[in-house]
Protein backbone atom coordinates (compact mmCIF):
# COMPACT_ATOMS: atom_id res chain seq x y z
CA UNK A 1 0.00 0.00 0.00
CA UNK A 2 1.27 3.52 -0.78
CA UNK A 3 2.39 5.56 2.28
CA UNK A 4 -0.31 8.24 1.79
CA UNK A 5 -3.11 5.69 1.53
CA UNK A 6 -1.72 3.69 4.48
CA UNK A 7 -1.63 6.76 6.75
CA UNK A 8 -5.08 7.83 5.57
CA UNK A 9 -6.47 4.35 6.26
CA UNK A 10 -4.80 4.16 9.67
CA UNK A 11 -6.33 7.47 10.76
CA UNK A 12 -9.74 5.77 10.68
CA UNK A 13 -8.61 2.57 12.41
CA UNK A 14 -6.61 3.85 15.38
CA UNK A 15 -7.36 5.91 18.46
CA UNK A 16 -3.87 7.41 18.72
CA UNK A 17 -1.84 8.78 15.80
CA UNK A 18 1.74 10.06 15.68
CA UNK A 19 2.86 11.73 12.46
CA UNK A 20 6.59 12.44 12.15
CA UNK A 21 6.99 14.18 8.81
CA UNK A 22 7.02 17.62 7.20
CA UNK A 23 3.97 19.83 7.62
CA UNK A 24 3.14 22.64 5.20
CA UNK A 25 0.67 25.39 6.01
CA UNK A 26 -1.04 27.11 3.05
CA UNK A 27 -2.11 30.57 4.27
CA UNK A 28 -4.04 31.38 1.08
CA UNK A 29 -5.90 28.05 0.89
CA UNK A 30 -5.86 26.57 4.44
CA UNK A 31 -7.64 23.38 3.41
CA UNK A 32 -4.68 22.64 1.12
CA UNK A 33 -2.34 22.60 4.12
CA UNK A 34 -0.83 19.15 4.27
CA UNK A 35 1.54 16.57 5.66
CA UNK A 36 4.25 15.56 3.21
CA UNK A 37 4.13 11.84 2.48
CA UNK A 38 6.50 9.93 0.21
CA UNK A 39 4.00 9.49 -2.61
CA UNK A 40 1.32 12.15 -2.16
CA UNK A 41 0.37 14.91 0.29
CA UNK A 42 -2.12 14.15 3.05
CA UNK A 43 -4.23 17.31 2.91
CA UNK A 44 -6.26 18.93 5.64
CA UNK A 45 -9.34 18.72 3.42
CA UNK A 46 -8.74 15.00 2.83
CA UNK A 47 -8.57 14.41 6.57
CA UNK A 48 -11.61 16.54 7.39
CA UNK A 49 -13.80 14.95 4.71
CA UNK A 50 -13.82 11.64 6.54
CA UNK A 51 -15.40 10.82 9.86
CA UNK A 52 -12.72 9.46 12.20
CA UNK A 53 -14.80 7.44 14.66
CA UNK A 54 -12.10 6.33 17.13
CA UNK A 55 -10.03 9.52 17.25
CA UNK A 56 -8.57 10.34 20.65
CA UNK A 57 -5.02 11.68 20.41
CA UNK A 58 -2.70 12.95 17.66
CA UNK A 59 0.92 13.99 18.04
CA UNK A 60 2.01 15.99 15.01
CA UNK A 61 5.79 15.93 15.03
CA UNK A 62 5.93 18.18 11.99
CA UNK A 63 6.82 21.83 11.49
CA UNK A 64 4.17 24.58 11.46
CA UNK A 65 1.17 22.39 12.28
CA UNK A 66 -0.50 25.01 14.50
CA UNK A 67 0.31 28.17 12.54
CA UNK A 68 -2.54 30.30 11.23
CA UNK A 69 -2.63 33.14 8.74
CA UNK A 70 -1.21 36.29 10.38
CA UNK A 71 -3.75 38.46 8.53
CA UNK A 72 -6.71 36.48 9.92
CA UNK A 73 -5.68 35.33 13.39
CA UNK A 74 -9.29 34.95 14.52
CA UNK A 75 -9.96 32.37 11.78
CA UNK A 76 -7.92 29.40 12.85
CA UNK A 77 -7.69 26.76 10.16
CA UNK A 78 -4.49 24.79 10.38
CA UNK A 79 -3.44 21.15 10.65
CA UNK A 80 -4.02 20.89 14.41
CA UNK A 81 -7.46 22.52 14.16
CA UNK A 82 -8.37 20.21 11.26
CA UNK A 83 -7.65 17.13 13.34
CA UNK A 84 -9.66 18.60 16.22
CA UNK A 85 -12.58 19.25 13.82
CA UNK A 86 -12.24 15.63 12.66
CA UNK A 87 -12.82 14.33 16.17
CA UNK A 88 -9.45 14.07 17.88
CA UNK A 89 -9.90 15.06 21.52
CA UNK A 90 -6.26 16.03 22.09
CA UNK A 91 -3.76 17.19 19.47
CA UNK A 92 -0.18 18.33 19.91
CA UNK A 93 1.34 20.48 17.18
CA UNK A 94 4.01 23.11 16.62
CA UNK A 95 4.09 26.83 15.92
CA UNK A 96 7.57 26.82 14.45
CA UNK A 97 10.18 24.85 12.56
CA UNK A 98 12.40 22.56 14.61
CA UNK A 99 15.36 20.28 14.16
CA UNK A 100 14.92 16.48 14.11
CA UNK A 101 17.31 16.09 17.07
CA UNK A 102 15.22 18.51 19.15
CA UNK A 103 12.02 16.73 18.11
CA UNK A 104 13.50 13.41 19.26
CA UNK A 105 14.10 14.78 22.77
CA UNK A 106 10.66 16.40 22.99
CA UNK A 107 8.90 13.22 21.83
CA UNK A 108 10.90 11.00 24.21
CA UNK A 109 10.14 13.25 27.19
CA UNK A 110 6.47 13.50 26.26
CA UNK A 111 5.85 9.77 25.91
CA UNK A 112 7.92 8.96 28.99
CA UNK A 113 5.60 11.23 30.97
CA UNK A 114 2.46 9.87 29.29
CA UNK A 115 3.32 6.26 30.02
CA UNK A 116 4.78 6.55 33.52
CA UNK A 117 1.45 5.53 35.13
CA UNK A 118 1.33 2.31 33.09
CA UNK A 119 4.01 0.78 35.31
CA UNK A 120 1.45 0.59 38.10
CA UNK A 121 -1.32 -0.91 35.95
CA UNK A 122 -2.65 2.47 34.82
CA UNK A 123 -4.37 3.20 31.53
CA UNK A 124 -3.24 5.59 28.79
CA UNK A 125 -5.25 8.79 29.09
CA UNK A 126 -5.20 11.23 26.18
CA UNK A 127 -6.56 14.01 28.38
CA UNK A 128 -3.14 14.22 30.06
CA UNK A 129 -1.58 14.96 26.67
CA UNK A 130 -2.64 18.45 25.70
Features:
130 residues; alpha/beta; 3-stranded parallel sheet; 3-stranded antiparallel sheet; 4 helices
Describe the structure.
The protein has 130 residues and is of the alpha/beta class. The chain is built from four helices and six strands. Strands 1-5-6 form a three-stranded parallel sheet, with helices on one face. Strands 2-3-4 form a three-stranded antiparallel sheet. The protein is globular and about 50 Å long.
List the helices and strands and how they pair.
Elements: H1 3-13, E1 16-20, E2 22-24, E3 34-36, E4 42-43, H2 44-48, E5 57-61, H3 79-85, E6 90-92, H4 100-115
Parallel strand pairs: 1-5, 5-6
Antiparallel strand pairs: 2-3, 3-4
Question: Would you count the extended β strands for me?
Answer: 6
Strand percent estimate:
15-25%
Basic shape: globular
User: Whole-number radius of gyration?
Assistant: 15 Å
Q: Helix- and strand-based class?
A: alpha/beta
Mean pLDDT: 80
Amino acid sequence: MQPHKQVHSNLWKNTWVHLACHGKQDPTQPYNSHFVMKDEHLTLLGIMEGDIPHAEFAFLSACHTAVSDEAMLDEVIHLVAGLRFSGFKSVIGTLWEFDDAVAKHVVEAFYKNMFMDLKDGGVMDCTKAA
